[in-house]
Amino acid sequence: MMQPLPGFRDFLPPSCAARNALFACWRETCRRYGFVEWDGPILEPTELFQKKSGPEIVAQLFNFTDKGGREVTLRPELTPTLARVVATHEREFRKPFKWFSIAQCFRYEKQQRGRLREHFQLNCDILGDASPAAEAELIALAIDLLRAFRFTEKEVVVRLSDREFWTDLLRAHSVPEERWSDLLSVIDKSEREPRDKTAAQLGSVAGPVLEVLDGGGRSEKLEQLVDALRLRGLADFVKIDLSIVRGLAYYTGVVFEVFDRSGTFRAIAGGGRYDNLIGQLSDGAVGLPAVGFAMGDVVLGEMIAAVPAARERMTKLVLNAQALDLYLVIAKEERRPDAVRQLQSLREAGWRVDYPLTPTKVGKQFQIAEAFGAKATLLYGDEWPSVKMKTLATREELLLPNEDLFTHIQRTWSH
Ligand code: HAM
């Protein structure tokens, strides 16, 4: 049998239903925050990512030469595309932009827990606002996206940091600017490396950097951000942690990553401020401050499966999204035309209705109705011209003249 490529997923109905429920929840939460949806192309010129994403992602590009000889890449992330789009269209919309997008992204990574070669990312970005209120708004949104799945501050934490804190420190120790990105990457990896290896890589700044990593740093900017989140009752979800630097090249200020408290999973989400990216993409023509984050579906899916309250919430969302209203049980084949006529009118009226395409045992039809979560069955049999309606949750039965069916359903269940 042919299998999907390594790191790619088939979405069979149950996992597709879970994916759709996740997306619906993401969309609804973003709309509560006044964000509007946008999208861009899945394939971009390779150059866009080579220039903008930084070496970590460039090593993982899914790229090829197209039939027109162009060097192209399946997007590994959405931020460079967003910067390109905004640099071109910034005059057409009122600022600040609060934009979100659900993008499938592709990275040629080694397949492992929490990491695949394709994943979906919810991207939320605020463009055209340099104030710390934009960071607070986005972090609150990231928290509410998790609270929508009943995660609490006991299970998840947003680790807050600031790249500017580190660049100020490096400048103060006279480290030349061309070494900053290498040193930031050493700090980024320090949590996963032995201390003496990190110290050796840091060289002359090892002392002051390790002092901060061991808890000796203070950032007023981040303390104010925590206060802004306290105002919203969300301070317990965040923690200042200067060891976060993030692997992407374009961040310029506050950066953050969301993790499970137990430390079992990889990052659920990550983001930060990137005030120079749009200017760089437009050769300085458009300068627009920006801040944003992305949340991936893979790690979040693993977390939902591991936390009972989240799992229950997901089951409920899936059921609500796909349950049938009615299942028509055809008990006598000579009633099939009557049932099909009513089936059509019920569907036209907006109800979700299914029925057996071919003759099927009555007991089996009831089983199917239960399996699809139908609220009620309508039985077409000896009772015609009346129809027997059975509410599946209560087992209550009601005999209704078929011409009264619509009024009854309309009255009892409003859409
Ligand atoms: P990122 O940290 O590279 O940020 O990715 C964001 C999230 O996407 C990660 O926290 C993780 O949950 C998920 N993710 C990334 N790679 C994979 C993978 N191979 N398999 C499964 N999940 C994955 C960005 O992409 C930035 N562009 C975010 C951003 C938006 N910054 C500003 N605006």
Total beta-strand segments: 16
Major sheet: 8 strands, mixed
Percentage of residues assigned to helices: 40-55%
Task: Calculate Rg over CA atoms.
Answer: 27 Å
CATH class of the largest domain: Alpha Beta
The coarse overall form would be elongated
Under the CATH scheme, which architecture of the largest domain would be assigned? 2-Layer Sandwich
Bound molecules: histidyl-adenosine monophosphate
Q: Would you kindly provide a written description of the structure presented here, covering whatever features stand out?
A:
The chain has 415 residues and is an alpha+beta fold. It has 2 domains: 13-317, Bira Bifunctional Protein, Domain 2 (BirA Bifunctional Protein, domain 2); 324-412, Rossmann fold, CATH 3.40.50.800. The chain has helices at residues 13-32, 46-52, 55-58, 79-89, 132-147, 163-172, 180-189, 195-202, 206-216, 220-231, 277-281, 297-306, 308-322, 336-348, 362-371, 405-412, and strands spanning 36-37, 43-45, 62-65, 71-74, 97-106, 118-127, 156-162, 238-240, 254-260, 269-273, 290-296, 326-330, 353-354, 376-380, 386-391, 397-401. An 8-stranded mixed beta sheet has the order 1-5-6-11-10-9-7-8. It has a 5-stranded mixed beta sheet with strand order 13-12-14-15-16, sandwiched between helices. Strands 2-4-3 form a 3-stranded antiparallel beta sheet. Strand 15 (386-391) and strand 16 (397-401) form a beta hairpin. The longest helix is centred in the first third of the chain and has 20 residues, at 13-32. The radius of gyration is 27 Å and the shape is elongated. Residues 77, 79, 107, 109, 115-116, 119, 121, 123, 125, 248, 267-271, 292-294, 296, 298-299 line the site of histidyl-adenosine monophosphate.
